[in-house]
Amino acid sequence: HLRGALDPERAGLGVFAARAEGLQASRGATDFGEYFLYFSFFLVVSALMLAALFFRLGVEQRLREIGTLQAMGFPAARIRALFLGEGVLLSIVGSLLGLAGAYTYGRLVMLGLRTWWVGAVGTTALTLSVSPKSLVLGATGGIIAALVCIVWTLSRLTRRSSTRSLLAGTMEGGRGEAGKNDKWDEEKKTARSFSPLRRFVLSPLSFAVVFGVLGMLLLIAASAQLVGQLAGFFGGGSALLIALLCLQAAWLRRRTKNPIQGSGWGPVARLGVRNATHRPGRSVLCITLIAFAAFIIVAVDAFRRDDKAAALDRHSGSGGYPLLAESMLPVVHDLNTEEGREALTLGTSRGEREALAGVRFERFRVRPGDDASCLNLYEPRNPKIIAPADDFLAQGRFAFQNSLAETSEEKENPWLLLRREFADGAVPVIADANSMSYVLHRKLGEDFVLEREGDPVRLRLVGALSDSVFQSELLMSEANFKRLFPEQEGARLFLLDVPSAEQAERLAGGLEERLADFGFDVTSTSERLAGFHRVENTFLSTFQTLGGLGLALGTLGLAAVLLRNVLERRRELALLRAVGYGRSHFALMVIAENALLLFGGLLTGTLCALLAVAPVVMARGGQLPIVSLGALLLAVVVSGMLASLLATIVALRAPLLASLRAE
To answer: Which is deepest, 213, 389, 442, 469, by most CB within 10 Å?
Structure first.
């Protein structure tokens, strides 16, 4: 009769479809592939621009071959088809190599998350999942993008080149009579035929104005939360980046240039800077590659969290509480009173009384549930809920990123929103901003339906905390908590307000020893925040590797541009050597040209990134990780100077007599 009367469900036993619920929760997880795609956009654009540059340089080295084919009767379309066939073959080979590189990169990221980054994900069961569809789409997209760049390059190379100029190894002169259809003359005639307004509209300066205004509007809209922060960040930063690049293109393409006069190192350096205007398209491309890499590196590093926040600051992520404690069993006694401490045998010795002097315990009722922080790789279906006492709400601690406050009292202390009553019966709750956006996938003012026996509970998000220790749970008023979850008695989470850090260290060990029967576990709030930050910083590090790849492409493009410019000007360099210029002058000219391109791209990318992340930086107190940013930018400078050194060596080894005779 006893066995028949027992009801396992009333005893708390439940049967769940674990695999089905796990798969359902995984579908709601944050798709970090989307963020990799956003950051890879700059890398892909840089790679395509570099591919177009190398293909153009390769074709320019074969101008005599193109001229010979034209002289033998090959039409321009047939010649373009021959070079396009080469481009198709190179694109296919490059895409296959790119697939192998992508697979290797993915394996390395998974290896890092299972080993040295395991603290960020909390599991070693991560594996790489590769779908044939993604491989085919990636390879096809790479081939199509490369072919578009190649077709555009070929059309520009053969549009205005005459057979005579191609046989001479140059691209000057049109298809008509020599000297009458010169490219420079055509450009001057075209410029004269346009009205001043049309010339301004078609100039890079007009594009700089348009994209500059667009970028500032997007940043302002993002800071005012009129558009999403993600769209505002990438859209505004990208628009400003394009605006500055167009501005530099307009400066490099300017017609009027003052003559270089004087003697000494200054005019020689100016001559090196002037060399960047010889091929303005290449120079702008080089600046763009460096700017993209700097933009990714600086922007991503600006979001890195600092674990050295002041633990006693009432408006920091710890709320001014240096210690946080959790217990397995509920504590029904008030640890702030002498009676409560005596009931728990606390403060029986002199040392314990000194450690507890001036200490205040903030008590929280707890309803166990899923972790709602970034430490949970799945979407929480049943989040953990805690309820502070009413006196905690009145203190107004912690910082809020945003809230639904309407009255002056609520704006001054958004914790009072937990006492608000909604006509539709929704219960107000407060969550951490990161958990709300990236784990719960909710916005401020939206509802989260909590399934339970009987009627489900609609929880309305009324406030978003800024980087707090409450990233694992939702906060509810004590009155609503007692009404909805009367079975949860006592307190199981505590925040300890300790006067000094030294006292906190002594108190932590004593509490764990005295309250061991309750399963009391005391940790510092700084360690709890560091655990959350470790996850964010880990993913930022993986994103930053894309900036490293962009930096490698930028350095390669910089070296290619400098080497090509030196090879094209080897005759004039030989003439300069013949009239008295020495090796040190050539080195200074190459270094000056390289410095212009390098620092132009570096300053452009850094400035746009800082403007794009300015709202985030100001929200965190206006602090930037200066040390890490400085180290990364120093790496960019060193890599660029190595490219300059390589170009200098090539310039100094150029044969003097043969180049001089060709001048």
So the answer is: 469
